[in-house]
Amino acid sequence: MKYLPGARQMREADEYTINILGVPSLELMERAAAACVTYIKEQLTEHSKVCVVCGCGNNGGDGFAIARMLMNDGYHVTAVLAGNRERCTKECEKQIWLFEKAGGIVGKEFAEGEYSVIVDALFGVGLSRDIEGRYLSILNAMNRAEGFKFAVDLPSGISADTGNILGTAFRADLTVTFQEKKFGMAVSPGKELSGKVIAADIGISADPLKEDETTAVELERGEYRNLLPERKEDSHKGTYGKVLVIAGSKGMCGAAYFNAKAAYMSGAGLVKIYTAKENRPILQQLLPEAIIVSYETVCEEELKGHLAWADVVCMGSGSGMDKSALEIVRTALLYGSAPCVLDADGLNILSGHPELLGQLLKGRYVLTPHMKEMSRLTGCSVADIKRDRLKVLGEYTDKTGAVCVLKDSRTLIGKRGERPVLNPSGNSAMAKAGSGDILAGVIAGFLAQGLDCYAGAVLGAYIHGRAGDYARDAKGSYSVMAEDIILQLGTAINECAGWKTEG
Description:
The protein is an alpha/beta fold. The chain has 20 helices and 18 strands. It has helices at 7-20, 25-40, 58-72, 90-101, 133-144, 190-193, 207-211, 221-227, 253-265, 280-286, 300-309, 323-335, 345-352, 371-378, 382-387, 389-400, 435-448, 453-475, 482-487, 489-497, and strands at 2-4, 49-54, 76-81, 106-107, 117-121, 148-152, 174-178, 196-200, 216-218, 242-246, 270-276, 291-295, 312-315, 340-342, 365-367, 403-406, 412-414, 421-422.
């Protein structure tokens, strides 16, 4: 797995490497600078001009070391100290001294001019407040200037913890970050402002990150492959679980269809759809593989029977929020015993009836909210959630005991006692009606095959996103429909399993 630390976690890893393992801070700084110089040189020619803009902290120290190394290699280098020299860390002051000893001159102002490369070494991961005053003016000037933009460790003005812009931010073409990509570089808007990201191994120990289970991670393909449920030769449809899809109010049969077909396409053995009476004839034509049962008025005892039949329940997509929908959700929460994926209107009903929240403590629920639905569940504004999604997600999953799949341009999966997982797959072409219904169905399909709620949510989000990636490759970024995503689920699963696919 790839760790995605924030500022505190990266600082602890630095301190452990320096104080426990005995690697000098200046040695790490030299390694960091050398790694950056390797990639900066790819943008340079014999007559290139480089401007390195440095702050007073250790990120600035990295910058002065970069300037010295480039100058020693014969390049024309301008180095600027944006802050007060009296406030420099001892490591930064040492690097300034080494730069001056090598013949460098430290400037005090960033002069807009013709540079081949502009290097941002102002703040790094330690910044925690909005940029203003002189630094704001300098960063804006750096952004205006022509030339390749290179960031050292993290573009200045991006929060390492959240990805948010702190007043203003450097717009990098390339960022060389040290040891691990920071969480703030993996989510918007930090992701876009970081440009291409290269994580350079400079010898910082990952042991503190391993021990800190609040550190978010990205899984790698082999780890997703290991999550795939086994398909045995000696098996039948009952081996792979029964999914009860409770979805689709009158005229909303599409949601039920996407739930059910996605569950089948991800490997579930048998799917039953419980839906409004008007949807039955359409669903029978769209998905003859499914068992269709319908209601005109909800019968609690009948619904309890369907709940008892199921190995997994997928509930809430397109269900509406009328009296019947509330009765269905209440009955399923109170009397169901199978793992349950709760989506869309099911989440909205839950948020409007806090007396039902205690049912989540049973620990068998996967919630799949987008940002607005998460806002209703938590009482936080969407802006507040985006301001620190890791914190909001962690507090909510700690409180409820549920697995939460927080959908956004980068989906984040959380569970009490487990690491937050940032899903690496998916794209903007998937921002279409029906895509979320498919995700709920995919997760339900994996739960039916025996995965626990956390593993099913993590794998389901990844496979759903990879199917969307294949759909985009086939149809482009504008024309992907939900059905296109469903049709690529098999390709995504085969890829994950390591099987060869045709075409």
